[in-house]
From TrEMBL:
Predominant location category: endoplasmic reticulum
Pfam families per UniProt: DAGAT
Regions crossing the membrane: 30-52
GO cellular component, one term: endoplasmic reticulum membrane
Family, as annotated: Belongs to the diacylglycerol acyltransferase family.
Any one GO biological process: triglyceride biosynthetic process
Alphabetic keyword roster: Acyltransferase, Endoplasmic reticulum, Lipid biosynthesis, Lipid metabolism, Membrane, Transferase, Transmembrane, Transmembrane helix
Subcellular location: Endoplasmic reticulum membrane
Protein name: Monoacylglycerol O-acyltransferase 1
Record has Transmembrane helix as a keyword: yes
UniProt GO MF annotations: diacylglycerol O-acyltransferase activity
Length: 281
């Protein structure tokens, strides 16, 4: 059921809790997804709050030292970041992969002497497919494409948040601005992959189950960039990405969509009102 009828039915349905005899493996999969959603929704705010609280406490010297480190390390995200391979291989990402499940389907070999711009579609609400395949090694990217190093591009805003920026870089993530992408794609010797969700945050507002609405026509900057640095464009499609969450209906021209568009233009971050099954359902 879709549209307004679905939203109304949500309030009429009783909550159906998951059976108590669910296997431990399934519970671990649910926890893995929960912590991932938690990380993307509020971990940045928590990290910023911890920084401020420590600064105002007797442990002020901890954020003070970190601020000095941050000053020296400020440009690192735009220079390829600081990936930590063992974190990309944490077992929790295997549970995350198996929850959906997520599969990486290889269709061709990619020589390691070139740099690549992976054009990821669609953005979806939280880019789950992009994270599973390129922010971790749970789906076997390093085995399928040995010698290639993926860098998932994210909004530059998140790399200004204390502590959170370091967490993102451990996964190989870098800012999605031109300077950062150029650095990755212009490295001599090849072997670097910049993964960009072409539709960006605005496309997340169109992520509805059963729909494939892409924002591509007015986004040609990535083509110019790849041509300028000599990188190869590789299309990547995440089937099922838009089926992961329901959104409150927000057709173009509606009051909700106008508010969302203005907030996105002002903050640079889209705010889709989404929902799905709960942790205990």
């Amino acid at each position: 059921m879709r549209g307004h009828r679905h939203v109304c039915s949500v309030f009429k349905m009783k909550i159906q809790f998951a059976p108590m005899n669910l296997p431990l493996k399934r519970r671990l999969q649910t926890f893995a997804v929960f912590q991932w959603v938690f990380s993307f929704l509020i971990l940045a705010q928590i990290c910023a709050a911890i920084f401020v609280v420590l600064l105002l406490s007797r442990y002020w010297w901890i954020p003070a030292l970190y601020a000095c480190w941050l000053f020296l390390d400020w440009e690192t995200p735009r220079r390829g970041g600081r990936r930590v391979e063992f974190m990309r291989r944490w077992r929790i990402w295997n549970f995350f992969r198996d929850y959906f499940p997520v599969h990486l389907v290889k269709t061709t070999d990619l020589p390691t002497n070139e740099n690549y711009l992976f054009c990821f579609h669609p953005h979806g609400v939280l880019v789950a497919g992009g994270f599973a395949n390129f922010g971790t090694d749970a789906t076997g990217f390093s085995t399928a494409y040995p010698g290639l190093r993926p860098h998932l591009l994210m909004l530059p805003l998140w790399f200004r948040v204390p502590f959170f920026r370091d967490y993102l870089m451990c996964a190989g993530m870098v800012p999605s601005d031109k300077q950062s992408a150029t650095w990755v794609l212009s490295r001599p010797g090849g072997g670097n992959v910049a993964v960009l969700a072409i539709g960006g945050a605005p496309e997340s507002l169109d992520a509805q189950p059963g729909r494939h609405t892409l924002q591509v026509l007015h986004r040609k900057g990535f083509i110019k960039l790849a041509h300028k640095v000599g990188a190869t464009l590789v299309p990547v499609y995440s089937f099922g990405e838009n089926n992961l969450f329901f959104q409150v209906p927000n057709p173009r021209g509606s009051l909700l969509r106008r508010v969302q568009d203005r907030l996105q233009a002002f903050m640079g971050v889209a705010l889709p009102l989404f929902h799905a099954r709960g942790v205990f359902q």
